[in-house]
């Protein structure tokens, strides 16, 4: 930094202000310092800075290993928001929630002196492991959970399920079947609650949800079984992939979507507008979710003791896969 200061003709403190994006630097001075940095190939020594400040500027992100749209987009949005806030991210991805695997991941974070951990936890086992560190580090839990010591930040999954179900009920459907995700997942359980409550509030029967595993294959298997019996007029699927499988199986059985069966998904995943028919679905704002997670973490690092739950509301995206029920369905 002293070499950069000499080349730019400024003080050591001015170089520090430029590196830390301090506003009180004249534009021409900032440009001169940046030109000197580029010419010399200077890179900040993060390890040395951590020794001086006793802060690593790094947060850990613990996530369940999954290629599903929701967890992947959540991870991406958290990483982008952290980088925009000037934080480094150390990632640990879990393939299972066994105690040894979780302990190894958390020890990895402690060895790196992370200042806090954001836990993207679709399943309770990951959240429980993170809770063991809550007395030592700030923890932000990305899950539909009510654990205040983990400072949950979540999309309101139950509200999203209500949006989907209320939409189908408003069209005149009186029987809405739900194809759920894995019951062990926080989001799946919350979506079941929202769907069931919407039906109960309007006096409709609440059937047992049909359990899928988030994949299009499970949606297709459930759709084929429904088509062989007496298919309902409306189905709410817990994610877009299962909705895609459902539409394929119903179409193969000679049923039309939405003329015979209306289908709603959840996530508004890439390409859902190009299903045939284009899919009505619930959109989660993952960019806002990531921003809120990092904002909450920065508050905790700054001494904010608020244990409140941060909630992001989803939206319903209306497309072509839903319609009013026909007076007579095809047999």
Automatic annotation (TrEMBL):
CDD domains: HTH_LacI, PBP1_LacI. It comes from the Bacteria. Residues 1-53 form the HTH lacI-type domain. One of its GO terms (molecular function) is DNA binding. InterPro entries: HTH_LacI (IPR000843), LacI/GalR-like_sensor (IPR046335), Lambda_DNA-bd_dom_sf (IPR010982), Peripla_BP_I (IPR028082). Keywords: DNA-binding, Transcription, Transcription regulation. Gene3D superfamilies: 3.40.50.2300, lambda repressor-like DNA-binding domains. PANTHER family: HTH-TYPE TRANSCRIPTIONAL REGULATOR GALS (PTHR30146:SF109), LACI-RELATED TRANSCRIPTIONAL REPRESSOR (PTHR30146). This is DNA-binding LacI/PurR family transcriptional regulator. It comes from Microlunatus panaciterrae.
């Amino acid at each position: 930094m002293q070499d950069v200061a000499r080349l730019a003709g400024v003080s050591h403190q001015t170089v520090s202000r430029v590196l830390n994006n301090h506003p009180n630097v004249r534009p021409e001075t900032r440009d001169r310092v940046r030109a000197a940095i580029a010419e010399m190939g200077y890179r900040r020594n993060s390890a040395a800075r951590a020794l001086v400040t006793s802060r690593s500027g790094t947060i850990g992100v613990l996530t369940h290993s999954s290629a599903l749209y929701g967890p992947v987009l959540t991870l991406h949005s958290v990483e982008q928001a952290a980088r925009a806030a000037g934080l480094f991210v150390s990632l640990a991805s879990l393939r299972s929630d066994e105690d040894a695997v979780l302990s190894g991941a958390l020890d990895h974070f402690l060895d790196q002196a992370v200042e806090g951990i954001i836990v993207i936890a679709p399943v309770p086992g990951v959240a429980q492991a993170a809770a063991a560190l809550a007395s030592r580090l700030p923890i932000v839990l990305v899950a539909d959970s009510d654990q205040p010591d983990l400072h949950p930040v979540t999309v309101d999954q139950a509200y999203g399920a209500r949006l989907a179900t209320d939409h189908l009920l408003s069209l005149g459907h009186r029987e809405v079947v739900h194809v759920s995700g894995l019951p062990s997942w926080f989001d799946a359980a919350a979506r079941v609650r929202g769907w069931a409550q919407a039906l109960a509030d309007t006096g409709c029967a609440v059937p047992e949800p049909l359990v899928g595993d988030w994949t299009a294959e499970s949606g297709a298997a459930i759709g084929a079984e429904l088509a062989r019996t007496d298919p309902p007029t409306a189905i709410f699927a817990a994610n877009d992939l299962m909705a895609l499988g459902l539409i394929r199986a119903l179409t193969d059985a000679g049923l039309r979507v939405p003329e015979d069966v209306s289908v709603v998904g959840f996530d508004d995943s890439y390409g859902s507008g190009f299903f045939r028919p284009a899919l009505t679905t619930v959109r989660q704002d993952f960019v806002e979710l990531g921003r809120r997670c990092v904002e909450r973490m920065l508050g905790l690092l700054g001494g904010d003791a608020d244990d409140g739950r941060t909630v992001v509301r989803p939206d319903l995206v209306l497309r072509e896969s839903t319609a009013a029920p026909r007076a007579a369905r095809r047999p």
